Amino acid sequence: MTLRELVGRADLPDVSVSGLSGDSRQVQPGDAFVACAGQAFDGHAFVPEAVRRGATAVLSERAVKATVPVAVLPDLAHRRGELAARFHGSPSERLTVVGVTGTNGKTTVAHSLAAAMPRAAFAGTVGWGFPKALRPAALTTEDPITVQARLRTLLDAGADSVAMEVSSHALEQGRVQEVAFDVAVFTNLSRDHLDYHGSMERYADAKKKLFQRDLRAAVANIDDATGRSILAETNAAGIDSFGFGAAADADVSWSNVRYEAQGLTGTWHTPWGKASFKAPGFFGEFSLRNLAATLTAECALGVSLDDAAASMLHLPPPPGRMQAADEAATPLVLIDYAHTPDALKAALAAVRQHLPGTSRRRLVTVFGCGGDRDRGKRAAMAQAAEAGADAVFLTSDNPRGEDPERILDDAMQGFREPDRVRRMADRAGAIESAIGAARATDIVLIAGKGHETYQEIDGVRRPFSDLDQARGGGNRARGPPGGGGVGVGWGTDGGEKGGGSGGLG
Fold first, then answer.
1. What are the helix (H) ranges across 212-275?
2. According to the model, what pLDDT value does residue 475 have?
3. What gap in Å lies between CA 35 and CA 72, rounded to an integer?
4. Do the Cβ atoms of 56 and 15 come closer than 8 Å?
5. pLDDT for 503
6. Beta-strand runs (E) in 245-374
7. Which of 2, 287, 291, 456 could link 398 by a cystine bridge, Cβ 3.0 to 4.6 Å?
8. Which residues, including other chains, have CB under 8 Å from residue 38's CB and lie 6 or more apart?
9. pLDDT at position 485, please?
10. Residue 164, CA distances (Å) to 140, 180, 184 in order
């Protein structure tokens, strides 16, 4: 493609463009470099580097000096998706694309959809590609140039559909404006990202943008007020709309649910009929809701109810989402990405549902709060942990540029009984201590970082994996549950605390 064809302006030269890049460090010879002013960096400052790396043209928001042709487009930031889609041949129009948005549950629903359908790919927080061969992703929803390039790569690799996580930031910034979504799914809305959106109303409005387009179907959690509002709007727009949940008027609901040691079983009730299901490796009511969202989206795409329900027997939970560190070791240690108050509450409630009602089995949690983010949710995270677990280890998450001890101070304000909390800024030490303190019959939930393979401290990402730490931490043993553990952070009665369900993980 030439620069003239790409931009659609006759005054531009017919210089050949073999690729697009918005990152000067990733420019390949023959690329056009797309320079926009961002929140942290101004791409115009990196034009010389891009040209040195072989860029044959520059697209910019303002005039810049360069030894290659420059196309000045004042509205370039808003046109990146359009230009990238044109360059890659509008790949989303040749794919069935499902977009999944919501505070929690995006990864599980999108990953489950991709795993359930034979030629489906995934794009989201834990990576992109086919579910069994994911490649790393920098963001939940990448920049518009990367989004279009990856859709094209997946199309060329044989995908016929893609399940994408769509973040509120991406919707607000127009990163998926040129993606032709067929089905949109809403999981839930709870407090998160208020440092960016400013209010829950603006946060909800950002999520709704995914549904304000020409869709084949809309799917939403109607136990959530925002989900109910979304379906009212999509119904009014003439879009086939399906609500899932426990509400009496839900299109898709469930019954006869059993929370077994291996996962969930139950019965679906849908507009397409009834079907039994078994979902090993999925735990708690929030997982039930994620599975309901997955099933509803599949059926909305034309998959038979029997096939959609049967596929759950073989669905792999995504990395870092209620992932067992070692299924053969005791105590059972689960890794989960829960990093909001509602998600942590739901994750703890989910694990609690799989603990038999005995005073000798306890729920231990390790959690932290991210730095340089909404300080208001830290105390709420502590409240969720204290209410849902029998023992709490408070530690660092990703402090980023903030003082870790200050973050812990903020969180400590939420505990009613702070003396019963083990506070350790060193996350590796907290994980090891929690596992070592647990009895073999207990369950340890390590929450907050999930699949992440780094910990960001002082603005530097250092290698760190909750999964690796859990596999090497404490005095874990293989084989049947036995005694052991020391009484740290809990009373001798071992009584269960509340952990009411809510939210999605």
1. 225-236
2. 46
3. 10
4. yes
5. 28
6. 253-260, 263-270, 273-280, 323-324, 329-330, 332-336, 363-367
7. 456
8. none
9. 37
10. 9, 12, 10
Positions in the chain whose pLDDT score sits under 50: 474-475, 478-505
List CB contacts of 1: < 8 A, sequence separation 6 or more. Answer: 16, 17, 87
Exposed, middle or buried: residue 413 (CB in 10 Å: 0-12, 13-18, 19+)? Answer: exposed
Residue 139: predicted pLDDT: 86
Secondary structure (DSSP) of 52-77: HTT-SEEEESS----SS-EEE-TTHH
CB burial of residue 373 (10 Å; 0-12, 13-18, 19+)? buried
For the chain, the residue count is 505
Q: Which of 219, 176, 186, 181 is nearest to 97 (CA)?
A: 181
Sign of CA dihedral 280, 281, 282, 284: positive
Q: What domains does the chain contain, in order, with CATH numbers? A: 3-74 (3.40.1390.10), 91-314 (3.40.1190.10), 323-478 (3.90.190.20)
Q: How far apart are CA 12 and CA 5, in angstroms?
A: 9
Q: DSSP secondary-structure letter at 264?
A: E
Q: What is the pLDDT of residue 500?
A: 29
Amino acid at 60: S
Q: Do 327 and 485 meet the contact criterion of CB atoms below 8 Å apart?
A: no
The single residue listed with the structure tokens 């420019």 is 27
Phi-psi region of 254 (alpha: psi -120 to 50; beta: other; left: phi over 0): beta
Which of 281, 357, 284, 335 has the alpha carbon at shortest distance from 112?
281
For helices 225-236 and 200-208, give the axis angle rounded to 10 degrees: 40
